[in-house]
Specification:
Length: about 230
């Protein structure tokens, strides 16, 4: 039986269950904490740090930190807002993000966060990486690797029936990238492809078959509703 516990988020007492992460407990109580790499049920990776909050005075990732009794969580200080802006700007600077020509525009979580935080430019130098576009490893998806934010959601979420991931890490350091394992192309179904496109928070994984502009830009998910749809 799960234990009821109480904690404070932004000075308000809330009750929740012990197995929840801070992100989940906050969401249950109408408090939005931005996430990019978070996948429900997966606590073993915290790659983006956009969800950083203060827990009893210390910075912690809200997506992989479980709630505890009497915990004191701050999600919305000026310092945390600035940290999040910093991370978003870094992601724009280290990838190639030209939203005007991106299929994911309007459905992209990174773009939606940039809008939420009213970011018009990045204070960091744009690196304009050219990591290539993989059109051949899969007959169902393409990967524009210069847009990948290395969140690893595809690796965690898209697996065959034996639990083997279709997407894998390759290389190291600055050359680290996520690639589709072409040896698994024969068992990669259209449903897997649709789910991979959905799980990718940016426009790195794109379907070859989907009608990319079926929903016109301007009428997509985040064109209509701000990400989180609440004040941070
Ligand atoms: S992935 Fe997102 S942020 Fe990058 S170009 Fe596409 S819409 Fe813009
Ligand atoms: S391909 Fe998409 S889901 Fe996979 S690591 Fe890159 S950004 Fe994340
Ligand atoms: S969402 Fe928590 S580290 Fe990425």
């Amino acid at each position: 039986m799960q234990k009821n516990i109480s904690l404070s988020i932004n000075g308000n007492k809330i009750s929740t269950t012990k197995s929840k992460t801070i992100v989940e407990a906050a969401e249950d109580n109408g408090i939005y904490i931005p996430t990019l790499c978070f996948l429900k049920g997966k606590l073993d990776h915290s790659n983006c740090r956009i969800c950083t909050v203060k827990v009893d005075g210390y910075h912690k990732p809200a997506c992989s930190t479980l709630v505890a009794d009497n915990m004191d969580v701050i999600t919305n200080s000026d310092e945390l807002e600035e940290l999040r802006k910093y991370i978003i700007e870094l992601l724009f600077s280290t990838g190639n993000h030209i939203c005007a020509v991106c299929q994911k525009s309007g459905d992209c979580e990174l773009q939606a966060l940039a809008y939420k935080y009213k970011l018009l430019f990045s204070r960091f130098e744009h690196l304009y990486p050219n990591k290539g576009i993989d059109t051949t490893s899969s007959d169902k998806i393409i990967m524009d690797k210069s847009r990948c934010i290395l969140c690893q959601r595809c690796i965690q979420a898209i697996k065959d029936k034996d639990g083997n991931p279709f997407f894998v890490l390759q290389g190291r350091s600055n050359a680290l990238e996520v690639v589709f394992d072409k040896e698994m192309n024969d068992i990669f179904t259209q449903e897997d492809a649709i789910e991979a496109v959905k799980q990718c928070p940016v426009g790195c994984i794109l379907s070859k078959e989907s009608a990319a502009f079926e929903t016109p830009i301007g009428r997509r998910q985040f064109d209509k509703t701000e990400i989180g749809n609440k004040e941070v």
